[in-house]
């Protein structure tokens, strides 16, 4: 029996003899099944192929990005936040090999893994077992976990402090339990927000957007975006990193608020007349 991985979203499943008949993540309206059909692989097949490798790059003091090349699944970026001897892996990627484990151990390992939403659960249990780390997932997204583990901690409420200065906030929107990470000491104590694609930086790096489904272009209602903005107004940060290595380097909080206000005007029909 093996842990199969959906090649479209990169999420790993419970151990089975036969490939799953479908991916519960991809057949849901926020994601999609590849036009080439459902396909599966395993982590051992990925490693043995020699095709994939992870790049671990220093973004700024205390923050490394982790990317797989060539891109696999959704193609998101994971981040390693380092603060006062405490290392948090924010979001996850599927590919994990001995070289990656060695390099991350050289950086102090991983003390906790925190996830923004189900699209990035990937092979989170493999990562947790490799580094003996707990996985923090909001309980509102419990139903989407495709591989169970004693390492998973389902937290509740609107926020959770993992370590002094590192706080998870449930924003909802993209998923009911959609979460962002506030790193208060990041960017020289000005604050960094890591958002997955709960808040996603768009092509114009001075703006962000909020969607129920990015793949299928399903927007969120204006009332939900207004609630998200109210939560973000209570968080202090000046820089923002999203799931696809897009960065708002300065005045990120103001840019998010202005983006949300623009989004609401567009949905309410007051931004433009076409």
From TrEMBL:
PANTHER family: METALLO-BETA-LACTAMASE FAMILY PROTEIN (AFU_ORTHOLOGUE AFUA_5G12770). Pfam families: Lactamase_B. InterPro entries: Metallo-B-lactamas, RibonucZ/Hydroxyglut_hydro. Signal peptide: none annotated. This is Metallo-beta-lactamase superfamily protein. Residues 75-239 form the Metallo-beta-lactamase domain.
